[in-house]
Amino acid sequence: MDARTQVREAAEYIAARMRVKPTIALVLGSGLGSLADEVEDAVALPYGEIPHFPSSTAPGHAGRLVVGTIAGKAVLVMQGRFHYYEGHPLERIAFPVRVFKALGIDTLFLTNAAGGANEGYEPGDFMIIRDHINIMGQNPLIGPNDDGLGPRFPDMSTTWTPELADAARRAAADVGVGAREGVYMWFTGPSFETPAEVRLARMLGADAVGMSTVPEATVARHCGMRIVGISCITNMAAGILPQPITGEEVIEIANRRRPQFVALVKRTIELIRD
């Protein structure tokens, strides 16, 4: 079965169970899944019930789609994402984004937990993603191109939609939380980055490092979606502080900042124009 048929079957399954027609898809990163509890009139669909959907094995990822409304806007929330380090090929990581586009969703809101490579950052900071760096030698668009989905050589110069970043910036001011703006660099994981890799990231202009987000943003750009992203800086990256990095630390900081994060995301959604 070809990829387009799989996308269509998954989209038809989801559409038949939706009560609203979402225009925004929200992907929740590690420790941030509780934002799905803010969805009103929610319909929850476990990934395992959706045709051709992968399964999420990452800690703290519930593995379901939640469709309903947030701040008066119809949204589809991906409560848990897929990562390359879980063993998913990049085309499978791309699959949900293709399904969102097939459902008529034109805006993708990506969130993640990230390590701070910028030495001026602190755990608990939020960062609006201005740009990203992919030096992993991997790209979800490698292989035959379906011109019906997007161009063979998509322009990435405005991947992160400026007007959506402005909405996030205004939202941060409205809810009274500080929000930095910076560049996110993708590493495959599951090992945390080494101090030398973090120094390299900083030399190349990265402010935060993490194990997700870039593959999804690349596919969303390919199929013409608008994209906004916010990172929760849950730890300082390796070599900055004299302490080990643990997954428990990531979840702890994300949980601690959850009320502010929820407020920031909800207000951003409210300010996004269709």
Write the layout of secondary structure elements.
Elements (H helix, E strand, L loop, with lengths): L2 H13 L8 E5 L11 E7 L17 E7 L2 E7 L10 H13 L4 E10 L9 E9 L27 H14 L3 E8 L8 H9 L4 E3 L3 H9 L3 E11 L10 H10 L1 H14 L3
Parallel strand pairs: 1-4, 1-5, 5-9, 6-7, 7-8
Antiparallel strand pairs: 2-3, 3-4, 5-8, 6-9
Describe this structure in words.
- It is a single chain.
- The protein has seven helices and nine strands.
- Helices cover 30% and strands 24% of the residues.
- The chain has helices at 3-15, 90-102, 162-175, 195-203, 214-222, 247-256, 258-271; strands at 24-28, 40-46, 64-70, 73-79, 107-116, 126-134, 179-186, 208-210, 226-236.
- It has one domain: Nucleoside phosphorylase domain (Rossmann fold, 3-Layer(aba) Sandwich).
- The model has no long low-confidence stretch (mean pLDDT 92).
- The protein has a five-stranded mixed barrel, surrounded by four helices.
- It is of the alpha/beta class and 274 residues long.
CATH superfamily, called what? Answer: Nucleoside phosphorylase domain
The SS-based structural class is alpha/beta
Give the mean pLDDT: 92
User: Roughly how many Å apart are the termini?
Assistant: 34 Å
Largest sheet: 5 strands, mixed, barrel
Count of alpha and pi helical runs: 7
